[in-house]
Amino acid sequence: MVIYSLSNEKPIFQQIRERIEDAILDGHLQSEDRIPSTNEFAKEYQINPATAGKGVNELVEKGVIYKKRGVGMFVSTDARKILIAERKEIFFAQHIEPLKKEAIRLGISDEELQNMLQRR
Fold first, then answer.
1. How many Å apart are CA 37 and CA 43, to the nearest integer?
2. How far apart are CA 87 and CA 91, in angstroms?
3. pLDDT (tens digit per residue) in 18-34
4. CA trace torsion 86, 90, 95, 101 (10° rounding)
5. How far apart are CA 26 and CA 20, in angstroms?
6. What gap in Å lies between CA 54 and CA 61, rounded to an integer?
7. CA-CA distances (angstroms) from residue 10 to 6, 66, 94?
8. 12-25 and 38-45 helices cross at what angle (nearest 10)?
9. d(Cα 36, Cα 26) in Å, to the nearest integer?
10. pTM, 2 dp
11. Cα first-last separation, the chain
12. Which of 30, 36, 40, 73 is the least crowded, having the fewest Cβ atoms under 10 Å away?
């Protein structure tokens, strides 16, 4: 997995979670691949292991990664599918709903909007 520096824009645990998610979505982490441990994240980013653990635990709760006691944490078989479904919902809420709302305000029909979306 590619390690990047952290920013001050978001909480650190969220950035770690997103980095793992992005690595899975981009194909850098595949099903059953081992991810770095919370201690490895802590050492790499010079943060408290509990902070890294918070981001990792959120992924465990969602079923994206799972723990093998004494071995490490691994990407689940359904990880990519789970993340794509979640990101599609976020995309819809952040982009499609506001787009549709603005189209209504401007009197753009569904057909006209669809034609606009198909243009390059």
1. 10
2. 6
3. 999 999 999 999 999 99
4. 110
5. 10
6. 11
7. 9, 24, 18
8. 110
9. 17
10. 0.82
11. 33
12. 30
